[in-house]
């Protein structure tokens, strides 16, 4: 089986002041030099400049929370992938459930953003996941298949060679309700099998993160599942001590 380096990504969402974000980035950078997991922080776009100067000389990798599918032009308010690359970003979170639900981003739109991100030399973190209604209706597999297939159909399986997938059940985000390790593993295995049906080597190398109320006290059991390669952390990533404890749990 391919070795997959764990990835712990902090999604800071729309939080913090310029000063508090600088302090958080400084504390995370100072505390993660010895870890074998890759540690990623994703501040708002407006904070990228400050954070990049702090993380540049550390083991911390920088990412963004979203970007445009366009490269340049009359798209007021947007930020392009190449602009993010200039600030040292290596990853861009795409298709987060908040973007799908609040900003009505379709799977096709998310797929076109994946292409733009890869074209700029960055790696998309493609978020997928079902709502509680969908889970209760037995639609977990079909919902996630639709979200993955939009990328497969608009590009090809090769797109997953430079991609991270994050399984974030919507009902577990910010709710304190974590998927059980078994529930999460079942979906992660399903995602890997769906990619493996196209290309087994790409599937075995693909990192699949779990997100949704990951905390220091549940991280170890989640990360011990065979198909869970790390986490996408929201609330607990806003506290350096909690975030670093989660990073420790990943190795
Ligand atoms: P929480 O860890 O706050 O549940 O958020 C998860 C998330 O949405 C990360 O992208």
Element-level helix/strand string: EHEHEHEHHEHHEHHEHEH
Major sheet characteristics = 8 strands, parallel, barrel
Average pLDDT reading = 97
The CATH homologous superfamily name equals Aldolase class I
| CATH topology term | TIM Barrel
Counted by DSSP, the helix tally is 11
Radius of gyration: 17 Å
Which runs of at least 5 residues are low in confidence (pLDDT < 50)? Answer: none
Shape: globular
Number of domain modules? 1
- List the quaternary state of the chains: single chain
Strand content: 15-25%
Strand order of the largest sheet: 1-2-3-4-5-6-7-8
Explain how this protein is built.
There is one protein chain. With 251 residues, this protein is an alpha/beta fold. It has a single domain, classed as Alpha-Beta Barrel (TIM Barrel). The protein has helices at residues 18-31, 48-55, 81-86, 97-102, 107-119, 132-136, 140-154, 181-196, 200-205, 216-223, 240-249, and strands at residues 7-11, 38-42, 60-64, 89-94, 123-128, 164-167, 207-211, 230-233. The chain has an 8-stranded parallel β-barrel with strand order 1-2-3-4-5-6-7-8, surrounded by 7 helices. Helix 1 (18-31) packs parallel to helix 2 (48-55), helix 5 crosses helix 7 and helix 10 (216-223) runs parallel beside helix 11. The two termini are 18 Å apart. Bound molecules: 1,3-dihydroxyacetonephosphate. Residues 11, 96, 168, 173-174, 211-214, 232-236 line the site of 1,3-dihydroxyacetonephosphate.
Key features of this structure:
251 residues; TIM Barrel; 11 helices; 8 strands; binds 1,3-dihydroxyacetonephosphate
In a nutshell, what does this entry contain?
The protein is of the alpha/beta class and 251 residues long.
